[in-house]
Amino acid sequence: MANPPPSSTAKSLCARTRKKTDSKQSNKNLLLSEKAIIDTKPALEIYADDVKCTHGATIGQIDPEAVFYLRSRGIGRQEARDLLTYAFANDVLERIKYEPLRERLREGLFARLARGQRAEEA
Question: What DSSP string runs through the chain?
Fold first, then answer.
């Protein structure tokens, strides 16, 4: 393959000493243009007994029905896409416990969306 797609790899490790572990791994990818592609590879390495580990991956584009819903309430097409993109990213941002980092990343996301910088331009 001349130009392989970008890869999104997430790996969880369950060491021998981690008995009774309940691990859940989720790898979510939002494709922001018709040309966008991703090769996602969730992975688990389990070296212990008596553990529960699950993993999964999703890949998708912005839901056209969600865009339609927002547009039917007077929000423009691009603003609707930006709002849905922000909501997707905010799921990750909300999990960052260190507030200064979380807020800096959130400000960067807002700035990027406000400038109208789209994924294909980044």
Answer: --SPPPEEEEEEEE-TT-TT-EEEEEEEEEE-STT---EEEEEEEE--SS-EEEEEEEEEEPPHHHHHHHHTTT--HHHHHHHHHHHHHHHHHTT---HHHHHHHHHHHHHHHHHT--GGG-
Rounded distance between C-alpha atoms, residue 65 and residue 11, angstroms: 33
Share of the chain above pLDDT 90, in %: 37
CB contact at 8 A, 52 and 22: yes
Domain limits, the chain? 1-58, 62-122
> Are 32 and 63 in contact, with CB atoms under 8 Å apart?
no
Instruction: Tell me the sheet residues that pair with 53.
Output: 23
Whole-prediction pTM: 0.69
